Amino acid sequence: MEESGSSPEAAPGGAASHYRALERLYVSAPINRLFESHIEIAGEGEATIRFVVSDKVFHAAGAAHGTIYFKMLDDAAFYAANTLATDRFLLTTSFNLHFTKPVRAGEVVAEGKWVSGRRRVLVAESRLVDAEGEEIGRGTGTFMRSRIPLSSLDGYKAN
Known about the structure:
With 159 residues, this protein is α+β, with helices and mostly antiparallel strands. The chain has a single domain (8-157), classed as Roll (Thiol Ester Dehydrase, Chain A), CATH 3.10.129.
């Protein structure tokens, strides 16, 4: 498999162009219409997503369901990793979660950071911080390059 485009500078318009395209890709995903959220990619190997958690996603005991933790952690780690892959869409192949505190409602910040790997498999970690600044969850994901070119995705190439 050819690894061309494996650095952000290889993207048309450079790294900043790739980051903005990834932000557009996030917004274009139909699943993200279900959540009040905003992504920001400030640099290579980094992604921050702000979510507003409401009672719509609560389990029976009145706190956010674990699927919401996974969504927030996976998204942040995924986008942090995909900053290093300018040619292909990444796929989550595994993800480990650690819940440290229940979240009821309010803003949650998901911070993603690339850890290792640049070719076929990338590893990234993420953490969730609640409105009080306390960590409420943490995760580590493994992501693999797919056969899907980023340039083929409408959300990525839209201006």
